Task: inverse folding
């Protein structure tokens, strides 16, 4: 368990994971659930445990649409999407230079890609 | 100021009957030591402490005054300690004006279950006042001998 | 001339081991006004008290100082001893030289010095003590119960049983409250109406109980033992004394499209209505928002069919004023509104219902006569999903931060009843935690799972989507299987959080009682005084104090009654004599004290004063009601002219203590 990494994620997300009451409404509401190896409620729990390395290696951090449905519906105000984003940011920082230029996007587009994904791609990769 | 090693400050503690006085009793029951400098005056509620009493204490030679009440929200009389909090805040500016160090007056919340906190608070406060040294006496000009 | 006696206690070795008690007695003996200073092994013992008593008699003492343990321990003992020797009990002061001196200090010299100073402070104070007499205030032998649900009914019945008159004020046309709407009760599954309606009838027939239905409390004045309450009897346009409750008017009324609040708006009633068949009082009420006669002046059918001549379209609201000795608050609860929970589609889909609505749907007296049918198309539902904690345990502004306590159990009850009556129905319950503390509660829940095969799934529903084919898609997480589910449901039942009734807050203001941030009434002590409010004479019954199930509500109702009876039994109450009083000559009537008084004990009176030039002048001055004043002293500090003072802890007394300590 990397304590610094946990602190970094908690600080950059601004989320208090201890507020979670483990109801799973975030995962119940997640449109990207089936795509994810680790689900929103697991992100919150694993960050609480400090198991961030596993999350950083998982594809799940890129599968989150950042649609904020979980943030909207969470009864405890935990904001799981911000946790996912913070883990993603930690991964990006570690790798370095993992950037997507706006000019790269048109080439990557395909018909099935939802509008939401394009918008969040900017958020995810252009950090 | 020259620090006198043997300086024993006079400290007056106002304790509300329901929380802090019981807390002080509890620290006694638990045999928790704190300096003899502290002398406790029992009041029904911390809001009974008129700022005049504090000024009177400083006038008569007290080196420190501490007011203890129930924790905010726990006042036996619903809202008394909120009044105390505001009054003491205002008193601080007056003490500044009079030239009495702020740290000679303190407001603390001690519940009936916090005997240890009471003893620790008194210990700390006594040390703080000791560090400040003797207080200058407030003098009533009307009483000055011509 | 003061004649003060000082008595120093050894308390065995508790005090004597670290305080030189003889030196203390010796030193205090030289204080001004002290005529006798003695020490003794155990002051609180029979012989110790005798020492004090004989000194009072022989030395004609005017004040007594006991240097002993904490006044919280034995102040009363010594006050009683003084009183039995003919000295006013409030002329006794205790210097705490055990808990606050001998027990905390180890050095004999400094401890003795401190004990002497504490003794001197007590001597200085007692010299300024004045004899105080406890006031007696009479108690009106009548109680008011606000709210006519099961809590209020139980409280009223118990108080009436003890032989006191009780009035119930109920804002609805009938008493019965939420329990009247419930079908069956957990964990015994007996019928709620079968156990409630006999109690309602008992309340109406008890000659000591007066029911003011369709009435509200308008104003409360006074204090413990002597409240004056204004009750508004709202116009129901039917003469209660004449109406026989035959119900003919409700049948003939042409205006039949009024949402029936008793059935949670799931069906309609007429503009003149009796809420339900077992209503108490069984009297019709006209709803002025829908009655054609009252709105347009054209109709009058009910008046024509009423053989008793009870209809009175000109009836007005009336105000009743009554005196009470005790008031019991039993305002109860309501399920929260689910408007803000878009994800559960409560407003979009009629087949998404709250648990209380399901209760009516399953009730034999409900809109479907006891057959569970979907509200939308009146077909049998085959898959029903229950969602727990809707609005409970929420940290946001949409919901409530607390656990509503009853939902786990009533959901298990609903699930079980449905599975028993319609075994072809699949029932899913999404839970976060199943909370079943209570007698036979967990067994009940286990029976739902093991015997009735209700599918309990650990997880939460995230989204409810009504589909075009009339089905409902329920998207949820199953945390234990770690998967996201989609259930094709026919009905969704939401266990809405419960909240205190909206009338509770204005009522709390009238009663000067405290509420928490969730609008539940605050009890005087969370552990030891759970049915009393901090305001004397106001008691709490049922869910107005916190979420409760029926047995707990009834228990609290009876407990509140016991406390009220305890008060009503007394002919008068003794008040704490350490109360505030204002010096009328100094008071300028500025109202500062009134604003800080948490009990509303201070009022202003116009009083005639003789001026030095022999004219008279009328001035407004503060007057403290000693029966209401609790003696906190907030007003004494707020008073800008120093007119307000507190008996027993007067300005001069505290100043004297300060002087003695600082000397």
Result:
């Amino acid at each position: 368990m990397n304590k610094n990494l946990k602190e970094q994620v908690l600080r950059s997300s601004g989320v208090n994971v201890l507020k979670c009451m483990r109801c799973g409404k975030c995962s119940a509401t997640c449109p990207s659930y089936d795509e994810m190896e680790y689900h929103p409620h697991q992100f919150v729990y694993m960050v609480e445990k400090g198991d961030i390395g596993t999350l950083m290696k998982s594809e799940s951090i890129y599968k989150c649409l950042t649609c904020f449905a979980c943030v909207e519906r969470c009864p405890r105000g935990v904001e799981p999407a911000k946790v996912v984003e913070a883990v993603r940011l930690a991964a990006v920082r570690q790798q370095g230079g993992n950037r997507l230029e706006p000019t790269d996007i048109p080439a990557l587009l395909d018909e099935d890609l939802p509008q939401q994904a394009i918008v969040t791609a900017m958020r995810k990769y252009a950090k | 100021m020259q620090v006198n090693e043997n300086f024993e400050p006079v400290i007056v503690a106002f304790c509300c009957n329901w929380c802090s006085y019981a807390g002080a009793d509890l620290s006694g029951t638990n045999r928790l030591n704190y300096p003899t400098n502290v002398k406790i005056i029992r009041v029904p509620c911390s809001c009974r402490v008129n700022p005049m009493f504090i000024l009177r204490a400083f006038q008569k030679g007290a080196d420190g005054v501490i007011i203890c009440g129930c924790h905010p929200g726990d006042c036996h009389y619903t809202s008394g300690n909120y009044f105390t909090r505001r009054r003491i805040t205002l008193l601080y500016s007056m003490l500044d004006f009079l030239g009495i160090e702020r740290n000679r007056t303190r407001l603390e919340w001690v519940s009936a279950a916090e005997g240890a906190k009471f003893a620790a608070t008194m210990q700390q406060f006594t040390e703080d006042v000791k560090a400040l040294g003797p207080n200058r006496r407030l003098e009533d000009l009307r009483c000055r001998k011509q | 001339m003061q004649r003060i006696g000082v008595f120093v206690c050894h308390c065995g070795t508790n005090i004597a081991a670290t305080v030189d008690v003889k030196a203390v007695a010796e030193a205090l003996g030289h204080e001004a006004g002290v005529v006798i200073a003695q020490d003794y092994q155990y002051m609180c013992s029979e012989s110790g008290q005798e020492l004090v008593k004989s000194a009072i008699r022989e030395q004609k003492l005017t004040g007594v100082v006991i240097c002993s343990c904490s006044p919280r321990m034995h102040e009363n003992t010594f006050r009683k001893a003084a009183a039995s020797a003919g000295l006013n009990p409030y002329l006794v002061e205790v210097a705490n030289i055990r808990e606050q001196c001998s027990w905390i200090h180890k050095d004999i010299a400094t401890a003795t010095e401190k004990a002497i100073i504490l003794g001197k402070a007590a001597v200085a104070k007692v010299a300024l003590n004045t004899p105080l007499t406890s006031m007696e205030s009479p108690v009106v032998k009548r109680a008011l119960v606000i709210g006519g649900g099961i809590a209020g009914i139980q409280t009223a019945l118990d108080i009436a049983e003890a032989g006191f008159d009780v009035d119930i004020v109920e804002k609805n046309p009938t008493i019965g409250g939420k329990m009247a709407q419930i079908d069956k009760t957990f964990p015994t599954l007996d019928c709620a109406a079968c156990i409630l309606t006999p109690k309602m009838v008992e309340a109406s027939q008890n000659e000591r109980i007066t029911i003011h239905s369709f009435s509200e409390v308008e104003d409360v004045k006074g204090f413990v033992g002597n409240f004056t309450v204004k009750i508004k009897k709202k116009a129901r346009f039917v003469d209660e004394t004449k109406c026989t409750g035959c119900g003919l008017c409700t049948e003939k009324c042409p205006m039949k499209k009024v949402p029936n609040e008793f059935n949670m708006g799931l069906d309609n009633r007429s503009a003149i209505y009796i809420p339900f068949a077992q209503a108490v009082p069984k009297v019709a009420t006209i709803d002025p928002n829908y009655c054609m006669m009252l709105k347009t002046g054209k109709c009058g059918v009910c008046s024509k069919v009423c053989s008793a001549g009870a209809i009175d379209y000109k009836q007005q609201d009336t105000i009743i004023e009554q005196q009470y000795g005790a008031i019991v608050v039993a305002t109860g609860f309501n399920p929260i509104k689910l408007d803000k929970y878009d994800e559960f589609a409560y407003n979009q889909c009629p087949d998404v219902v709250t648990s209380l609505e399901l209760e009516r749907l399953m009730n034999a007296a409900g809109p479907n006569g006891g057959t569970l049918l979907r509200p939308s198309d009146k077909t049998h539902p085959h898959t029903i999903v229950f969602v727990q904690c809707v609005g409970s345990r929420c940290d946001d502004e949409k919901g409530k931060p607390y656990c509503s306590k009853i939902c786990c159990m009533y959901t298990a009850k609903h699930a079980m009843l449905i599975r028993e009556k319609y075994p072809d129905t699949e029932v899913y319950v999404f839970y976060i935690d199943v909370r079943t503390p209570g007698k036979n509660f967990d067994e009940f829940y286990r029976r739902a799972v093991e015997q009735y095969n209700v599918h309990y799934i650990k997880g939460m529903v995230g989204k409810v989507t009504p589909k075009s084919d009339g089905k409902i898609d329920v998207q949820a997480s199953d945390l234990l299987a770690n998967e996201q589910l989609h259930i094709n449901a026919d009905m969704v039942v939401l266990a809405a959080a419960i909240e205190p009734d909206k009338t509770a807050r204005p009522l709390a203001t009238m009663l000067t009682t405290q509420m928490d941030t969730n609008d539940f009434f605050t009890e005087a002590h969370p552990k030891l005084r759970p049915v009393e409010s901090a305001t004397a004479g106001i008691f709490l019954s049922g869910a107005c104090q916190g979420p409760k199930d029926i047995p707990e509500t009834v228990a609290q109702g009876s407990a509140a009654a016991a406390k009220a009876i305890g008060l009503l039994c007394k002919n008068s109450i003794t008040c704490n004599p350490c109360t505030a009083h204002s010096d009328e000559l100094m008071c300028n009537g500025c109202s500062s004290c009134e604003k800080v008084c948490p009990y509303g004990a201070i009022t202003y009176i116009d009083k005639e004063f003789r001026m030095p030039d022999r004219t008279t002048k009328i001035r407004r001055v503060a007057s403290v009601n000693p029966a209401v004043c609790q003696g906190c002293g907030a007003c004494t500090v707020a008073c800008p002219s120093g007119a307000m003072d507190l008996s027993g802890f007067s300005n001069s007394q505290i100043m004297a203590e300060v002087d003695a300590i600082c000397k």
The longest strand of chain C covers residues 215-223. The CA atoms of residues 18 and 306 of chain C lie 89 Å apart. Chain C touches chain B through 44 residues (CB under 8 Å).
